[in-house]
What we know:
107 residues, alpha+beta, four-stranded mixed beta sheet
Amino acid sequence: MTxxxxxxxxxxxKGNAPLILSAPHGGDYKPKNIKTRTKGDFxxxxxxxxxxxxxxxxxxxxxxxxxxxxxxxISREKVDLNRSxxxxxxxxxxxxxxxxxxxxIKE
Length: 107
């Protein structure tokens, strides 16, 4: 598999199949320079990071096509990537992470 980009705590699989997988709540990384959110849901989605990667890998093995994948490596405690901008983060340092996630989906 090729075309994997890691940027701003987001892992992006540039695909060539009409399938997009996103996992906004599976990351564990908690950078100390980013404040933890004080409101909202903080629970990690169990195994969505790992499961998304397994699905992408298996899909490629069976079809020789790669789905698009946008997977958060950062913890939901820092930024909740599938919420509105107003709800997603409290620390301005995470705005670029939020933008990166959504730009990869648009791409």
